[in-house]
Design goal:
The chain is α/β, with parallel strands linked by helices and 423 residues long. It has helices at 17-30, 75-81, 86-99, 115-122, 158-167, 177-195, 206-214, 235-239, 261-271, 288-297, 315-321, 337-344, 357-360, 375-387, 390-398, 405-420, and strands spanning 2-7, 34-40, 51-56, 59-64, 103-106, 127-130, 200-203, 222-224, 248-252, 277-281, 304-308, 324-327, 349-352, 367-370. The chain is built from 16 helices and 14 strands. An 8-stranded mixed beta sheet has the order 3-4-2-1-5-6-7-8. A 6-stranded parallel beta sheet has the order 11-10-9-12-13-14, sandwiched between helices.
Length: 423
């Protein structure tokens, strides 16, 4: 079987959860089928505009620039290209002809083009899509506003303009928010029309599924299937001897304010030097101003360390060090792989009581929950785990089994065959 996997960005330049997950799936599928990953890439390492098909870690990858050499485009066109790009569609049409896939499994469409869904359907190729976040419903994909409040609705997309102004670092642009409403309305119409061509959606969490159903997507087309992970990368941590509490707390993920890293740092600042240690792993250059703020906040706190980016093959070492993993996000997380990786490594989790995190972390069974954005409440939980060291062993004993990447691939193959048979 030939399988095409479109995704917004890919390894090795991009290493967030969706990219790592897609690569894990692609590698497993490539052991059994012919696989091609189709992705957007801004530039190659040599500065050239990408228009190449190459192999990465055993997987064939087609890398295409969003605007294929047009280096200067106005902001409104950049916004349009994030979901609607005729140049991408032209290249994708050629890829469909040359590769001739038996099934297309979309992972993410940001900076590609939603029009590839219609192209796939018109070619009579079975089409499914995994919903990794809220991108089809929210332009920033996270339903969170610049003031860290959850966005539960807008006035005809007016607030989307305010959000865009803040994210662009142009507060005066807020005045033009009413004029931007048609841009966001056009985006909504285009995405909804194109998403109708998808035959089946996969939602890694019930929470995310509910958000899409609430937004009007047909419930019968959205199937909840939890992601699988590459357990081979975690063998060292899974096999490491686990003794009593050492006071080791870890964060693994993006260094971004939506992830609530500042909340975690503030909680440990208030904790003081009591023997506990916090190590934070994540790329510091994606949001350098935010990383600099964190660095300044921990100057007088030697028990807190920013470790920098962690290669996905080194996650096992970090989890072997940790007693607890902390996930302090302030947005509606969907299915962060770090939680499942922690469970596979016998590490309980402390997480925000928010979004799908409450599905993954069962209070007092597999970890603890705290009020999102509340450093004082997080501090309370950390102090509780330090005062009650026996809790660690109790939690370890209750951690759930973890689905492997191989098991997940088996599930996807069943769906591929069902779609090819028209069921």
């Amino acid at each position: 079987m030939k399988i095409l996997l479109p995704v917004h960005q890919y390894l090795p330049r991009h290493r967030a959860g969706t990219e790592v997950f897609t690569h894990s799936l692609a590698k497993r599928l490539a052991e059994r089928h012919e696989v091609l990953v189709y992705t957007h890439e801004s530039t190659l390492d040599n500065g050239a505009w990408p228009d190449v098909t190459e192999e990465y870690d055993g997987v064939r990858v087609r890398r295409v620039a969003a605007w294929l050499g047009q280096q200067r485009v106005p902001p409104w066109q950049v916004f349009r290209y994030s979901y609607d790009n005729s140049l991408i569609e032209t290249d994708y049409a050629k890829t469909l002809r040359d590769f001739a896939p038996d099934v297309v499994h979309v992972q993410h469409l940001k900076d590609l083009s939603v029009g590839i869904l219609e192209q796939t359907a018109q070619a009579n190729i079975p089409l499914l899509m995994t919903l990794h976040d809220y991108w089809a419903l929210c332009p920033n994909a996270q339903f969170i506003r610049p003031d860290a409040s959850i966005c539960t609705g807008t006035h005809a997309r007016l607030e989307c303009g305010w959000c865009a102004a803040e994210r662009l670092g142009a507060p005066l642009l807020r005045l033009a928010a009413p004029a931007m409403i048609p841009l966001f309305a056009a985006r909504d119409r285009a995405i909804r029309r194109q998403m109708a061509y998808v035959q089946r959606f996969i939602a890694p969490s019930q929470f995310l599924r509910e958000q899409y159903v609430r937004a009007g997507y047909p419930a019968e087309k959205i199937q909840h299937i939890e992601n699988g992970i590459d357990l081979s990368r975690l063998q060292a941590a899974a096999q490491a001897p686990r003794g009593p509490l050492r006071g080791h707390y870890a964060y693994l993920g993006s260094i971004a304010w939506q992830k609530g890293v500042h909340v975690l740092v503030e909680a440990f600042r208030r904790l003081g030097d009591v023997g506990a240690k916090l190590r934070i792993w994540g790329k510091l250059t994606t949001f350098p101003d935010y990383a600099a703020q964190l660095q300044e906040a921990i100057q007088d706190c030697p028990w807190i360390k920013l470790e920098g980016e962690l290669d996905h093959n080194q996650v096992s070492d970090a989890l072997a060090w940790a007693d607890y993993l902390v996930v302090p996000s302030v947005w509606w997380e969907n299915a962060p792989s770090t939680i499942v990786e922690a469970y596979a490594a016998h590490v309980p989790v402390i997480a925000s009581r928010l979004g799908a995190l409450t599905e993954r972390v069962r209070e007092t069974e597999t970890g603890f929950l705290f009020a999102p954005g509340d450093a004082e409440d997080l501090l309370r939980v950390i102090q509780h785990t330090l005062r009650e060291p026996a809790l660690l062993e109790q939690l370890r004993a209750a951690l759930p089994s973890v689905k492997s990447a191989e098991e997940y691939t088996d599930e996807m193959e069943v769906i591929y065959h069902e779609l090819r048979q028209g069921s």
